[in-house]
Amino acid sequence: MRSFNSEKMDIPIAAAGLVFAVLAFRWLTRRSSPRIPGPRAHPFVGHIFQVPKVKTWKYMERLWHEYGPIVKLTLAGDDLLILNDPADAEALLGRRSKIYSSRRPLVYAGKYMSGNMRLTLLPYGDNLKKQRAAFHGMLQPRAIGGYEDMQHDTSLQLLVNLYRTPQDFYTHFPRFPASLIFTMSFGQKMKEDNKDLAAVQGVLYDFVRDSNPGAHLVDTFPILDKLPDFLSPWRAEAKRKHEDTIGLYRRLALDVKKRMEKDPELECFTARLWEQQAKMNLTDDELYYVSGSAFAAGTDTSSITLLWFVFAMATNPETMKKAQREIDSFFDANTLPNFSKMQELRYCFALMKEVIRWSPIAPLSFPHYLDADDEYKGYHIKKGTTVISNLWNMHHTESEFPDSYTFNPDRFMDKKAGTGDVADRLGDDIYGFGFGRRACPGQHLAAKSTWIAVVRTLWAFDIVPEKDELGHPKFLDIDDCSNGLTSRPNPFPATFVPRSSAHIDTIMASYERI
Ligand code: HEM
């Protein structure tokens, strides 16, 4: 016979049993998300010691072949999602752009070095929308037509420089987009010895270096930002860089404002910003940053593309000759090419696409950052994940780009021609300008600027690799390039040989007129 006491004891035991049963049922029937494929991680540090800082995209190419289109890595607790298939990038960065359009908060480069005002590093939100809208005014397809005269003049200067000192081509090509965007931004021609250019290039150099993942310990371990100043000398350094940058941008923008007083018709990006400052709701500091950022974001990207173009021509002479035959059929030696035949020179346009495909300037694009938890293809993707669209792998997908390591513009000649202005279509069929709401706002400008530089250079010069003692062309290694957010070919030997004296006469006669 059971005692009263033992009956009393049964109640909590039964309750505990019930709770246990419910938990066990839940555990057994839980829908756990499958693990996102990727290499095994070390406890605590994750893959921090496996991801090389040098040519990271090569390592990621191996992961793609081993683990498939979606790969996850973990760096000291931070998840990194790598998208190798453009369809996944479109689905997430494109169609779910509301939550996939942020940038990872960077303490050094974002908070202190940019005062949280640099467009490329801004999180998704009102400030970003404001700055992108301001950019759009300058860079939308309709506005681009207004820059043709500047593009003609600056590309003519490029030809003259290549003729006078061909051995310095490695500095001439970057100078072309730099002087173009400088003139567009600040409404005055850039002198050859312009000190502001060197200063802006310094800002850019710092930005690329300091925003590179792993550049500063505080961005891997943000808790270090809690340390006082005397234990954090990096903070003063970052703040000093911010003061230098905004000081420079302020001076350039105020100079435009002063010139506007004398010349209310002054036509440039910064003048438009001053006129519309109130409408765009930009503070003075934001205006300085927007006005300076076009230069910073557009110069390096365009110049690296052009350096890869030179590299491609020096290593693919038959392709170069084919493009020259197309150009010659429209422009003889007495006629400097201009934009009038941009629609017709289809092979030259395909050649530019191929440059961007073959060697994308940012092989891993600019990483996006996820603002909320998400589910995709059964995987759980955590808020705060850094999302990389791996342009390198996308551009080397054999099913889409057969024989993908070969430089071959013909692969784009069979594609649908499309309608409307060809300049709006440089990004079609390739992925080199990114995805979703952070996609490059400068691609229409880049299309026309790089096109005129490419066509004029090939019209005027043969680009030939230097020869060794035996007269054989020197080997140029595509892997001999810089590492970081962007990747440019390291200086390489190539020669620019004028195609005829008539071409040079045409160049010099046109140059005298500007
Ligand atoms: C061939 C030349 C160029 C290439 C290949 C290129 C490529 C790219 C790529 C891959 C991105 C990152 C997109 C993403 O986050 O998904 C980007 C962003 C950007 N580009 Fe370009 N770009 C070029 C020229 C230009 C030019 C000429 C300008 C302006 C004058 C420009 C302004 C920008 C800006 C402001 C961003 C940041 C956008 C944001 O964070 O919201 N780019 N570009």
TrEMBL record:
Its cofactor is heme. Heme binds at residue 440. CDD domains: CYP64-like. Keywords: Heme, Iron, Metal-binding, Monooxygenase, Oxidoreductase. The keyword Heme applies. GO terms for molecular function: heme binding; iron ion binding; monooxygenase activity; oxidoreductase activity, acting on paired donors, with incorporation or reduction of molecular oxygen. Pathway: Secondary metabolite biosynthesis. It comes from the Eukaryota. Belongs to the cytochrome P450 family. This is Cytochrome P450.
